[in-house]
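seq:
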Amino acid sequence: MFDWVKNIIESIGYPGIALLMILENIFPPIPSEVIMPFAGFVTEQGELNFLGVIAAGTIGSVLGTLPFYYLGLKIGEEQIKSWAQKYGRWIMLNPKDIDRATRWFERHDASAVFLCRLIPGIRTLISIPAGVARMNFFSFLSLSVAGTTIWIGLLTYLGQILGRNYDRVQDYLDPVGYAVFGIIVISYIYHIVKNK
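struct:
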């Protein structure tokens, strides 16, 4: 995974970072924790600009979360719950999850979007209840951009600090990435079998 991310960033630059971050939101096994630190490393080498990398990562990440917002907005809570009742086991979602997320979102509203964009694993999922709750799009967008910029900036800065030692980190990141991917696949299969 590391080599794939590295090749895209080195060959495409800023658009490659944005593309990877869009995919990271849609396909969680592609972790931003690999993408952005490597992009930060590239800035240390002088190939890309630090602020440009943060902008590309933020744009890609926010674009990747928009389909989930619109899913909640256009389909609505009752239809999503009905769909989750029939097919939700395939994406590990049930109507109770939607009710819980909606209640939580209603309690925390704007702060939920901002804070969740800083938390791996739920950064994208907060978009669904935001859409279901019909949160103002510009508020959703601005809070997503604010939270995402902090997260992306931190990861990019950490990559920049690693500098020339980043290649050594590859030995640790690849096994961790594969382990996380394996856990996700096993959890998914278990969930499908359990809810069959």
